């Protein structure tokens, strides 16, 4: 067993820490090998991982089907798995993006399709991928609450919302967790969002803990980015990427002293920020998964944490975490 377990907030499920984020197995990070993706999910199950994060728009349904087939190949795996699904992002046949829809009728429509693709009678955690500015959060959460009452959903989560939205949502129905980017290079939640979540008893599932590969210790600035989201990411642009990788090199010295890898230190740092935080790792191969899960054996002392913070201070990253048009979709950044 290489995983630990944490409970998401006051009302959420107990899940493995870290959990496995599946997006890159279907979309946005260039080609992925489906057989290796399935093998990686199976390796995660073997290691005790229970939290699997997907979205109905990852590969336009492909990601949910991939998870369904991987779980079906392991009898009893669905009973142990906690499936977290994001919904609401609209795609076109060319893979483009067309906004968000979180109207109550759309919520139930998306859920119906996800349940069928996943081959399950319930979704463990269901969450809108972004706040729909045209729909009050109370209406969206109320619709999911009706799915909870009907037994189709077990817990309600949110993603990338700010403190005010978090409070409004929690007034309608208990929220298990907020999924939001959090890493050594993305620490914005520490100002308002994380304190609000803790005040409300809402857990954090942290994605982007390796800052989309920058903190992996493996990134090369000359890497080709065809069909890859990072091609438009400000932090990967010339000038910015060199600055950010220099920060990573300062972390490498710390990792070497701990007999660990850069990725393991970065993951362990997120986990060390509180028992209410569950890192999500986006490993697409068994080797990367093995490396990521070994972060659970790494203990960072107060001295280690201070040294890391000195090496990579808050706001040290060059470039915003998303391109400007995508930043506009983030309620958490308002």
Automatic annotation (TrEMBL):
Keyword Repressor listed: no
InterPro entries assigned to the protein according to its UniProt record, in alphabetical order = Aldo-Keto_reductase, NAD(P)_OxRdtase_dom_sf, NADP_OxRdtase_dom
Question: Lineage in the entry?
Answer: Bacteria, Bacillati, Actinomycetota, Actinomycetes, Pseudonocardiales
Give the domain of life.
Answer: Bacteria
- Please report the name of this protein according to its UniProt entry: Aryl-alcohol dehydrogenase-like predicted oxidoreductase
Entry-linked SUPFAM superfamilies = NAD(P)-linked oxidoreductase
Record domain NADP-dependent oxidoreductase: where: 19-311
Q: What are the protein's GO molecular function terms?
A: oxidoreductase activity
Keywords, alphabetical: Oxidoreductase
Look up the record and report any one GO term of the cellular component aspect: cytoplasm
Q: Which organism is it from?
A: Saccharothrix variisporea
